[in-house]
């Protein structure tokens, strides 16, 4: 009976990846895996200005989808990710108008809004 063990090979590949990503490994000033400091990774999240008109529009779109009893107080944080379009990751402060006895409730919600050009959808 023959037994094949692949775990050590996988562990070695994992360890080799860790060593390759460490500073001072011959990658120069590129931060390990060939990335330059301050340059975003393709497909990665990038922080965005919460006051940007596009971010505000995405936030308003998300709140409108929640329903007419919800309103946007502010955008707490925002980041974007380039996918087949743009994916907005937003943390919103939102208020919800409830019955006249309980008034208004404020809460924080995390939403994602995707914006895709029409030609990507086909």
UniProtKB/TrEMBL annotation:
Residues 40-121 form the Cystatin domain. One of its GO terms (cellular component) is extracellular space. Residues 1-21 form the signal peptide. CDD domains: CY. PANTHER family: CYSTATIN (PTHR46186:SF2). The keyword Amino-acid biosynthesis does not apply. The lineage of its organism: Eukaryota, Metazoa, Spiralia, Lophotrochozoa, Mollusca. InterPro entries: Cystatin_dom, Cystatin_sf. It comes from Dreissena polymorpha. Residues 36-45 have a biased composition (Low complexity). Keywords: Protease inhibitor, Signal, Thiol protease inhibitor. This is Cystatin domain-containing protein. It comes from the Eukaryota. It holds the Pfam family Cystatin. GO terms for molecular function: cysteine-type endopeptidase inhibitor activity. Residues 25-35 have a biased composition (Gly residues). Belongs to the cystatin family. Residues 25-45 are annotated as: Disordered.
């Amino acid at each position: 009976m023959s037994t094949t063990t692949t775990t050590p090979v996988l562990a070695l590949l994992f360890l080799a990846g860790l060593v390759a990503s460490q500073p001072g490994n011959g990658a120069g000033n590129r931060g390990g895996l060939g990335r330059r400091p301050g340059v975003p990774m393709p497909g990665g999240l990038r922080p965005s200005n919460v006051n940007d008109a596009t971010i505000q529009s995405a936030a308003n779109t998300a709140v409108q989808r929640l329903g007419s009893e919800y309103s946007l107080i502010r955008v707490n944080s925002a980041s974007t990710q380039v996918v087949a379009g743009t994916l907005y990751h937003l943390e919103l402060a939102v208020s919800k108008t409830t019955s006249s006895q309980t008034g208004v409730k404020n809460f924080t919600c995390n939403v994602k809004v995707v914006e895709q050009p029409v030609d990507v959808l086909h």
